[in-house]
Structure formats: C-alpha cells, structure tokens
Specification:
Radius of gyration of chain A: 20 Å
Helix content of chain B: 40-55%
Largest sheet of chain B: 4 strands, parallel
Number of domains of chain B: 3
Radius of gyration of chain B: 22 Å
Structural class of chain B: alpha/beta
Largest interface: A-B, 60 and 60 residues
Order of helices and strands of chain A: HHHHHHHHH
CATH topology of the largest domain in chain B: Rossmann fold
Number of helices of chain B: 21
Shape of chain B: globular
Strand order of the largest sheet of chain B: 4-3-5-6
CATH class of the largest domain in chain B: Alpha Beta
Number of domains of chain A: 1
Helix content of chain A: over 70%
Strand content of chain A: under 5%
Number of strands of chain B: 10
Strand content of chain B: 5-15%
Oligomer: heterodimer
Distance between the termini of chain B: 53 Å
CATH architecture of the largest domain in chain B: 3-Layer(aba) Sandwich
Structural class of chain A: mainly alpha
Chain lengths: 219, 435
C-alpha cells in the first residue's frame, strides 16, 4: 500500500472514527453532568430559555464596541481565518466531492483561484495569530500547549493543501498524501483540544444566554 | 490568621493549621465538588483569545497580564480536568496537569480576592460566552475551604456567624433602627409580628449610611403599607456568597427568608446593595431548595415601581446627573431601567457615562474588595477609570444604588481629593417626596 492509499484509506477512516467518538464522548461527558435547578422566578417578560440561548449564540458573534478598543486585532483576525478556513474546507471542488461521498449531497464549488487566495490569506492570518500569541504578554501568559498544538494542526492542512494544489515541493501524490495525513492528525486531536470550541461555543454561549435571559440582563 | 508573602513577594493570608497538602486538596476538591453542567461547559470552552483582559478594570488600569480574568482560574484548570472533565481518567493516567502546589494557591489568593470584584464584565467580553465571574466564585469556594482567603474577609465571615451580620450584633439592631428613627424624625417599625413588607439591610446602612434606614421607612409610611424591620432576619448582604463560604451562604439565606415567611410578608425588600441582590434574588432558591413563596425585590426596583405606577410623586430637582450602575444589580441582575425611571421622576437629566448600563465599569470594590484593605492600591487604580468617565459627563450629580459602591467611590474621591459627592438614589427619593 502506497502512502496515498494509506492516507485515503485506513488513516482517514481511523481518524474520522476517533473524531466522531471523541466529539461525542466529550459532549456527552459534559452535557450529562447534573444541572443546578434554577427556581428563582424569571424576570417579568424574560424570553423563553431557547430564545435567550439563541440570542446569545448569535449575539456573541460581534463583540461590544467598548471591547474592540484593545480587542480589534483578535476579533478581525479571528474572523479572517475562520472564514478563510470555511471557504477552503467547504467550497473547494475536491473537498465537496469527498464530503458528498460521506453525506450524499453536494453544493456548488468556488473557482480554484479563489480557494487558493483564501488559503494564502488563511495561512497568513494564522501566522499573524501565532505571532500575536507569542508576542502579546496577555496571550503568552494564558497560552497552553493545547493552543500551540491546535495551531500547528490547523496550519499544516492549510499549507499542505496549498502545496498540493500548486505542486510545490514534491510529487503531487506525495503532497496530497501529506495533506490528507495532516487532516487525519487534525481530526484525531480535535476532540481533545480547543478545536472542540467549534461545537462547544453553542453550549457555552447558550448556557450564559439562558442565565442572563432569566434575569433580564444583557449579554 | 497569618499574613505572609510568597517567594515572589505576593501577600497572602492563611487560616487554620491544615498541612499544605491537605489545604491544596481541600481547595481542589471543593472547587469540583458541586460542579454542575454550566460550569463544566465553561471550563471546557476557553479558546485563550485574551479578550477578557480588555474588560477587566484591574488589567486595564495596571497593564499587568496576570490580572487577565481567565488567568485567575489557572490553578483550578487542573482540578477540573483531573476530576470532572470527560477525559479525567486520561489526565490522571498520563499524569497531566498535576503541578498545582500550595505556593501557587497562595499566590493566586490575591488574584481571586483582591483583583476580582466579581463584576462580570469579562463575561460580556468573552466571545465564547464563558461566565468567568461565576467560575471565580466557584474558585473562591475552594479557597475558603482551604483557609486561603484575605483575613479581613474571613473576619467578616466569623463576625457574621457570631452576630448574624458582619456589621453589628443582632442584639443592637433594634437600637440602631430606633436611633435612626429619632435622629431623622421618622416613625420606624421593628419586630412587628405580622407585616406585608419586610425590610432588610446591608452593612453600609448599619454603619455609614444610617439615614437610608429611615429613608425607606419614610417612603413606606407615605404609601401606607404594613412593614417592619426584623431582628431575626435583617442581614441581606450575604458574606458567604462573597467569601465562598457556602454553609454560611445557605444559613444566611434561610434565616432571612424563613423569618420573612414567619412574619407573613409577601415582599422582602433588599437594601441598596448589589451582592445582596445576587445572593437573594438569583441564588436564594438554590440554597432554599425550592421556589420561595415570597417576592424578593431590590430597593431600586421597588422605587422604580412606585414612580412608574404613580404611587409616589417627587419634587423635580431640575439638574443634571450621571449614574453608576452597580454590577450585581445591572450587569448581572438585569435592573437597568428602574434606576433611570427614578432619576427621570426626580427631574434629573441623565448624562450617561461613556460605559454604562451592562457595560459600566465596576466601582472597584465589589466582591469584598472594598473590605479587603490589602487591595486598596488596586482599588484606587480602578477608581481612576470611573472618576474620568464621571468628569467627562460634566454632570452636577453622581448617583448610585448600592451602598458598597457608594462607600468605594467615596473612599476613592477622598483619596484623590475629588470634590464629588456620591449620592444614593433612595436618599434622593426620600428627600424629594411630595407631601
């Protein structure tokens, strides 16, 4: 079995299994913990819990203006690499073909040139995030190994993807195999580190939304 | 009680004579003991973006990264991951994150108690919606059990246990009420066997703001309802809530509510105190164990209702004012409009602070910080933020609705020789009642 067959076959299957089982394990592990029953009477006119949660999930997409004075870079750069990653993952024709093989449906792709540009911008944005993490005293202090591992494993699929699509550095088959293997490692790490925020943000924002909504407080 | 400093020169206090390891384990175990779903979700969700720093008055005014709110939880990350998180067995198996020693907890004591007023502004800044302030309150539970809280706060804790209040022995309460009544020439009710309204107090009213005791009496007499103060359950500022002493929090909650129910009250009015509102309005049912058949309402909400329903009329002042939003009342309590309704009824033109309402800066003294003298330098730093924003409004009056905020801001004004009186909303209402 050559490297590409290994990457596409057993490696990817194993990685996806760990991803699914790990994500479910972590979510169920947290969500099955007992909750404090809140018997305090809600404020008159308080929205129902589901609406408070939804408002928080959507509302926290945009920071309050006052926090942007110091948090502008984090916010804007965060948007850049999240949107860039979403474009690269979900709008590139070969990725859509792969996802169709998993889920059975597809959607239109963006032109390859645009995807390439998004990939370059994403890589640049991720590098900027890393430099900021290493240079800013607050970021440096609060960063853990988790942050650097998660950064590396997000960055690798982007650069190997760019290398594969531009045929730079090695044979295409080798580059593609490395790209897929980097995704495998990303998927295996995903449930254990902070990449899980892609799922957790819904629950985290929602829970505070419910708490604040009951009180009639603004989040 | 012993005042000491860590090897890196950070002051800490320590109570009791537990060995270091037992202390460390007590802190960790208590932190995770009552861990519920929301706290666990929040411990899982941090993406280490640092946005919370931009919201914290102690970070913003000092520029010291150690005051970043999420950093204040560092020793407790380990406890969570090793004992509660979904991968706890893995953490223990691999020996991950077991580097918290007693020295670290001693160092973190000041971050959790001196450099956090539980104001919750960080919660609003967190893009993941993590209620960091609530997690810090959980961490304080651990610190209390470990005997690692500032001596001044522990002293208040012991006093509250012995006296029923951190401010005054319950035996003296009736005298304080009578004296205030005589001094201000307002008829007062104390220990009536039955009443519809029970009025509670916080230390600020029993010490520096005794006029507030008769201000509310004057208003209640005016609207002609049956009301009383009560020696058995007068203390609403729940020091257990602030210190992390859960047994005391439950005891004080039950005492106040059982007493009001025994009197047959339908409404318990909380004083102008922010933490009293958090403890009694939003957490009491948790400690009471069931829904409470009693309306618990903050003084400001009560005043808001009286003016909006026309039950009281006020003489217009006709000047400008700004308003300091007490964090527990507004940001974490949702009472944003009521104080503004009252100011309007007073004929005061409101000039809002640059950051106001749920985004207002803390006075700097909440969460026990004002009582913890060790934190004075930090508190005064935080005060400078508020001072500047108040000056920028150019308002003639500076009003708030929390006695502890008022004390904190007055201390700040005194320190900086700032000629600005911090006024109480309740006092303004009582002084401008139309006869």
């Amino acid at each position: 079995m050559d490297l590409l067959s290994f990457a596409r076959g057993p490696a990817l299957t194993f990685a996806m299994a760990i991803f699914v089982i790990g994500v479910l394990w972590r979510l169920i592990g947290v969500l099955s913990l007992p909750a404090w029953r809140d018997d305090s009477p809600p404020r008159k006119g308080a929205p129902p819990a589901w609406l408070s949660a939804l408002q928080a999930i959507l509302g926290k997409m945009i920071p309050h203006k006052t926090f942007l004075k110091e948090g502008m870079f984090t916010t804007v750069n965060g948007y850049v690499f999240h949107i860039g990653l979403a474009i690269c993952v979900f709008a590139f024709a070969p990725h859509i073909l792969f996802l169709k093989s998993l889920f059975g449906f597809d959607w239109p792709a963006l032109p390859n040139g645009l995807i390439y540009a998004a990939g370059v911008i994403t890589a640049g944005s991720l590098l900027a995030a890393l430099v900021y993490r290493l240079a800013n005293p607050v970021m440096k202090l609060i960063s853990r190994g988790n942050d650097y591992i998660s950064w590396t494993l997000t960055f690798l699929p982007v650069v190997t993807g760019l290398a594969a699509s531009s045929h730079i550095g090695a044979r295409y088959e080798t580059l593609l195999a490395l790209h897929i293997l980097s995704i495998c490692v990303f998927l295996i790490w995903f449930p254990f580190g902070k990449l899980m925020h892609a799922f957790l943000f819904v629950f985290s924002r929602g829970a505070t939304g419910i708490r604040f909504g009951r009180r009639g407080a603004q989040l | 009680m012993t005042a000491k400093t860590t090897a890196s020169g950070v002051a800490y206090d320590m109570q009791g004579d537990k060995p270091d390891l037992a202390r460390r384990d007590a802190a960790m175990q208590t932190f995770v003991r009552d861990f519920a779903k929301t706290a666990a979700i929040h411990m899982e969700s941090c993406v280490r973006c640092g946005m919370c720093a931009t919201a914290c008055q102690y970070y913003v005014t000092t520029g010291d990264p150690k005051y970043t709110p999420i950093n204040k939880l560092k020793p407790f990350e380990q406890a969570y991951h090793r004992h509660v998180g979904p991968f706890a067995p893995l953490y223990r198996l691999l020996g991950l994150g077991s580097n918290v020693g007693i020295e670290m907890l001693q160092e973190w004591e000041s971050l959790l108690f001196d450099a956090c007023s539980l104001c919750g502004r960080c919660t609003l800044a967190c893009p993941m919606g993590i209620d960091i302030s609530e997690l810090i309150k959980e961490a304080r539970h651990g610190m209390y059990t470990a005997g690692l809280v500032p001596d001044r706060l522990e002293l208040m804790d012991r006093t509250a246990k012995a006296w029923g209040s951190p401010a005054t022995p319950a035996d003296d309460f009736a005298d304080i009420i009578h004296d205030a009544g005589e001094e201000n020439d307002v008829p007062v009710n104390i220990d009536l066997p039955k009443a519809d309204y029970v009025i509670t107090t916080a230390p600020a009213e029993l010490t520096e703001h005794t006029k507030a005791l008769t201000d509310i009496a004057k208003i209640l007499n005016k609207i002609g309802v049956s009301w009383t103060y009560s020696t058995e359950g007068f203390e609403a500022s729940n020091i257990g809530y602030i210190n992390g002493d859960l047994d005391l929090q439950e005891k004080m909650t039950r005492k106040m509510i059982d007493n009001a129910l025994q009197i047959g009250a339908h409404t318990l009015i909380l004083p102008e105190c922010g933490h009293a509102y958090g403890a009694a309005r939003w957490e009491a049912a948790r400690w009471y164990g069931k829904p409470i058949p009693l309306r618990i309402i903050h003084m400001t909400e009560f005043l808001g209702e009286l003016v909006t329903t026309g039950k009281i009329k006020l003489k217009p002042i006709g000047e400008t004012t700004t308003f300091h939003d007490p964090c527990q009342l507004v940001r974490r309590g949702g009472v944003t409009q009521a104080p503004r309704d009252v100011l309007k009824a007073l004929g005061l033109e409101l000039k809002e602070l640059e950051d106001h309402g749920s985004l207002g800066w803390c006075c700097g003294g909440g969460g026990g910080v004002v009582s913890n003298t060790r934190a004075d330098p930090l508190r005064f730093k935080a005060f400078e933020l508020k001072k500047k924003q108040v000056e920028d409004t150019g308002a003639e009056h500076f009003v708030t609705a929390c006695g502890q905020c008022r004390i904190t801001l007055t201390l700040g004004a005194k320190k900086f020789k700032w000629d600005k009186k911090v006024e109480s909303l309740l006092e303004l209402v009582a002084d401008h009642l139309v006869d």
